[in-house]
What does this fold into?
Amino acid sequence: MSDQPIRLSEMISNLNDNSGGEAANADGTRDPAVIVLGSPVASAPGTTTNRRAFLARASTLSLALPGVAAIAACAPGGGGAGGSAAAGTADSLSALDLQNANSRLDTALVHSGTHEATTASGAAAPFRRYSPELPPLSDERTLRIHWRAQEVPVRISESTTVAGWTFEGDIPGPIVHCQEGDTVEFTLTNEGVVPHSMDFHAAQLDPKVAFRSVVQGDSVTFTFKPRWAGAFMYHCGTAPVLMHIGAGMYGAIIVSPRNPLPPAKEFVLVQSEFYLGDAVNGVRPFDYNKMLSTMPDFVAFNGRPNQYIDDPIRVSVGDRVRFWVVNCGPTHSCAFHVVGEQFDTMYLGAPPGTPIRGVQTFDVPAGGGMVFELDCDVPGEFPFVNHGFGHGQKGSIGFLLVE
It folds into this structure.
């Protein structure tokens, strides 16, 4: 056996000669391919090197590269039903132990022109303000939730419609509000073309079982009881997770403590980033390469840049305000701040057991959530903002109007 590991570029150039994904050693034997990041190896003369061809070929390596095939499916011309990028029949799929970080049953080799499919009705997608109010708790201590994964156009401003991958047709998905110790019975039915799944950060479950991917028309059901109060993220966990979160499959589950917090006007803010390509038929697709570069076009609270500047959050003098802030990323943090105010209480972990007093700004990491409280005893127009102003200027800003 050679001591030198086979590099990715060598594996790709050998694909046509070696459908098993193995590379030849000096003695003529073949070893399972091992991927090592390093300097590229020159391609053989005449080898196709464009990105689309690379992704289509690399999809056959999805056992070693979980989710690469899904990237190919997302790429324009990446293949559809009967497309040239199709990896094989159902029999060949079942013969492989395909998986992503969260699922034994990942089916990332299902290909489709997903974004083309979402653009047809893009012009008709209406703009609506995402309501930031925390929904009231149910009187029932068992929540039964049945959602759909849908690939639909979503208008995030009057001038911008995106080709979203969504829960229940919106970005972010619906706000879930339950109580510490409640039972959540959740079912996801996939109406999209590519596989999707659900990962609740408020749950403690075997992800390979509960958070598994399902193909179009199939459903997954699981039950959990949140052990801790707080502001938690949920998201699609299908590979590549960056693409599924980045394309809109995320939201907030708010878990109130069993002993209620003091009365307040309560609002949920979900920060997220948008990485977009050029419009096709008036709809902008999400761009995976931009996601990897971590340079977003927009950063928003609740899926619409600047929406709470045009239509502020309104409260009255004397109100206590509680912000449940969830940062769905997929990559950057949120330095949450209210201009002209201070947070008398911030909960780093589960409220009410982790109070920090007198906070001006605090970083909410991607995939995290925190709770911020203040007394509105001064009238005025108070901007709430990601104080990382490179992102605040891109849309993660709004007004708290105290009247």
Notes: The chain has three domains: 8-115, 129-263, 288-402. Residues 51-58 form the longest helix (8 residues). The radius of gyration is 23 Å.
